[in-house]
Amino acid sequence: MLPTRGRLWPDRPDWSYPSPVTDGHDEPRLTDRADESRLTDGNESRLTDGDEPRPVDGDEPRPVDGDEPRPVDGDEPRPVDGDESRPTGRVDQPHPTDRVDESRPADEVDEPDPRRRWPLWAAVAVVLAMVGCGVPAALLAGLVDRTADRATVDRPAARTPDPATAAARRMGDQLSAQLARQADALLGGDRRGFLAVADPSARADLGRRFAALRALRVTVWRAEPSGLPTPVAGQAGQWRQLVTFRYCFLVPDCAPSPVLIGTRWRETGGAPLLVAVEESRSAQAGVRPWEVSDLVVAVGPRTMVATTPALRGKLPGLLAEAESAATVADRYAVAGPPPDRYRIFYAGGPEWRRWYGGGRPKWTAGYAVTVGGGHHEVVLNADGLTATATGELLRHELTHAASLPARGYPGKQTWWLVEGLAEYAGADGAPVSRYEGLDEAGQLVAGGWNGRLDALTPADAAPADRVGGSYGVGYLAVRHLVDRYGEQQVLDFFRAVVHDRRSLDDASEQVLGDPWTALHDECVAYVRATVR
């Protein structure tokens, strides 16, 4: 049986693709709990094809090894737009719950309303006029004094910050300086400088992060404190600071991906020291591989492949397959240039259950997840992938990374189109008769499918053959459209529906020149005839 594609998570519509914080992308929300699992963005099933799992042929779902359930995504599928196995997921900007409202500083001084300044000037004018008329000086002095008193009463007094706020601001300034020092050390390859801001108890974890980020060839690393630090309850002299880290790999001028992470610090006689860095568990994607694992990395002209030291021997073959798949996926960048570099992570069993929050359906073999800045990262399941299926799976997942918008696709009604295009790319021009999912598509059609393309999205608990059948029907529908209108016109249709969020009816009329109702029935008739 064909391993199930890493599909886009079916129940994750628009909102399922959280976009990262800045650069116009939404960031995942943090609940500001250290143990928080990722938000699911509403009703997120995993991304459809970026985070859509491919079936692993009978593998039972694995425990997440202590990972706490995700807040909104606990058992719910991930967003359609930022986490695709071949589901995709999205990303909303994180809003830490402990963020202090700094829209106006506590020590800001209100400026008097300009309209309140007229009494004093008016008094002066009156005095000058009265002097000209011979009014006694004593009367003039009394008038000026009373007018000046009124003007003074109208002017608000300057506010001073309360001691707790003032202390938090002083600490925030010190933490910002330490984080900037650490960022410079990371980019400069200075391990000693990177660890110098940390308490000895935190240096082992930070040393591993430093090595992983350097292996990934980090080119941008900016630390942006979010709000003011807050005292840690029951830990005198310790502070917690939420920080948005923005990063790029390999490419120095990329749109950075953001990740919101909690940090804890200890006051000293001099600069504060970092005592702990929490796992991100952000709504956008969850724990990144470089946060929790040792990594080895291979880099090619279009791709970067990373895995753990135990699987180092797989890297040369994976890189060759990835480079070949990238040349195909680049053709499906429908709304701009292809990704600057495709990022691929090859996960062993423990990593599969932990990276990006784990918890994929048991039939998942791979997925793509949005990480902000317009980037998707692809994850392959080492335990659910055969050597012969690697190339097809990579073409499928990298096409998600190239074709999907950062915020994800519109939802279940377009799942067939998103997955069908990725399956079409995965087939790479092979004849329909050689498509491996034909038998599963036939079983679905014969087993009571209602003939609606918008009803194809499989549930997370669906059996592998049901999932494979859904992918197969999506592939055949897209194949029929390509045969009739040509690849470029179908890509324009895809862009109108998935990127521009136009209805299928409008996009069909305006891009393909035919009513969608008739085309839908044509696609279904083609599917039935092909699998008969």
Report a brief summary of the structure.
Keywords: Membrane, Transmembrane, Transmembrane helix. The chain has 15 helices and eleven strands.
Descriptive overview:
- This is Peptidase MA superfamily protein.
- Keywords: Membrane, Transmembrane, Transmembrane helix.
- The chain crosses the membrane at residues 120-144.
- Residues 1-114 are annotated as: Disordered.
- It is a single chain.
- The protein is of the alpha+beta class.
- Among the domains are: 166-278, Nuclear Transport Factor 2, Chain: A, CATH 3.10.450.100; 281-405, Zincin-like (2-Layer Sandwich); 409-531, no CATH class.
- Helices cover 37% and strands 14% of the residues.
- The strands form 2 sheets. It has a 7-stranded mixed β-sheet with strand order 1-2-10-11-9-8-7. Strands 3-4-5-6 form a 4-stranded antiparallel β-sheet, with helices on one face.
- Helix 11 (438-446) packs across helix 12 and helix 12 (464-485) packs across helix 13 (487-499).
- The chain is elongated.
- The model is unreliable at 7-84 and 86-153 (pLDDT under 50).
Secondary structural class: alpha+beta
CATH level 3 topology of the domain at 281-405? Zincin-like
Can you tell me the CATH class of the domain at 281-405? Alpha Beta
Mean pLDDT across all amino acids: 78
Strand content: 5-15%
If you compute it from the alpha carbons, what radius of gyration comes out, rounded to the nearest whole angstrom? 29 Å
> How far do the termini sit from each other?
19 Å
Helix and strand element order: EEHHHHHEEEEHEEHEHEEHHHHHHH
